[in-house]
Amino acid sequence: MTLGPAIILLAVTDAIDGKAIWQRISIIFGRVPMFFYILQWFVAHGFGLMLTLFAGKQISHYFQNPGPQMEVPSDHGFPLWVVYAAWIAGLILLYPLCRWWGKLKQRKKHWIFSYI
Prior knowledge:
By secondary structure, the protein is mainly alpha-helical. It is built from four helices and no strands.
């Protein structure tokens, strides 16, 4: 099920000319995949911790090793709309950083930039 839709998506996006705003945004994120992947871990976990603090919920389970002995409070988690809002806020926060990193990769041709 995952390969079929992915192949169809590749075929549809093959003719992207980069003129539409959603295409330019996608191209920015696509040029710096490892940079985005590393940063999104910190941003996502930071947002989760901040949202939990702002909601007045217990945060001790964030600092435990996961496993069967881990105790998670019964009121943990958020509604789906909060998760989507945090996801969109994370993308908005990471966009300027990814754009800056992409321009830096184009200007500097150091070997490390091809990996990050």
